[in-house]
Fold this protein.
Amino acid sequence: MNRRSLLVGLMALAIAQSACRQNADNTLTVAALKGIVPPRLLSDVENTLSDRMKLRLTTRQSLADLFKQLQDWQASLSQAADTDNAVVVNTANWVGLSDYWLTAAIQQQLISPLKEPRDIPGWSTLPAQWRTLLQRNDQGLPMEAGTWWAAPYRWGHLTIAYSRRHFDRLGWQPTAWEDLLRPEFKERIALPNHPRLVLGIVLKSLGYSANDLDPTAHSDVIDRLNQLSSQVRVYASDNYLQSLIMGDVWLAAGWSTDIQPVLSRYRQLGAVSPKPSTLLTADVWAKPNPQIGSDDPQSLTTADKTWLSYWWQQDVLTPLSLFSQGLSPLLLDANIGSELLNDSLGSVLIPNAEQLQESEFILPLPREAIATYTQLWQALRRSK
């Protein structure tokens, strides 16, 4: 056995001992994005834990901060191994990530795959779409027989927000992606500053997959991109709603998780899940990797299973969807969503069953496909 292997083994032993001490403290620690876990549900899930178990939630301002925290934990482990110091690095039991960060977290070995996830209560009730998103190989690419790398917490979708004042004057409201191309909206719309999202809008508007490996194979994609370019006033992923509120743009495409909480404060704004289908995003719970250079699955404690399965319960579906500004993982089943749309979730933005059936998560692409998307994006931006 070489020196580094011995040190890594000692580190693993130290971390295992730390885990025992944490269990002795009876504390389940979770790091999440600030504001996404409703306080009323947090106290409820804490009550479902064992009487001897405590729950501690720490929050970060952004998903980038949470990803950086995962990197810092791994850096501390690596530094300790290189300096012969078998120190203990206290990571959280669970970290909230978006699906956007999942590939990088897997590739950098920042998180561990889930061991025997089917043993988690309620796992079998999760809609099949979660398998496509969360089963991946060790490079973070979707794989049907791959390992489960995270558990779903909530999801959202790309939405069109619009100024009611302008549309009251026009006498109609937007309903579809194609509405962005109408001549009266020339330089009146805001789109995300992200190639996959903008190109995804174009592909979905034409009825293609947002994960198409070669959009240029469709002759109408380039024409649609050129049409869309003349309509855009600003590409922005942050503060785009401010442009809409101030009247600088009339329509803005953005995530429902951003737009939903704004609608109740600014009555002059409306929003719609656009036809024919849209793009999806998810927030998930991932387990920080307690070892260097390892992708071994981590066993789940009873507290772990309680934390994960709580968010998939039928009686949590409505309050989670109302108070977290996202949608319950169960609502990816189009039939469940359609049943509740005109009932308890009437005020929540959600695609109808037909739209949801054709909607997609943005999945990681092979290198060649990424190069094609990048070239199209660069050409689009140069045209402005």
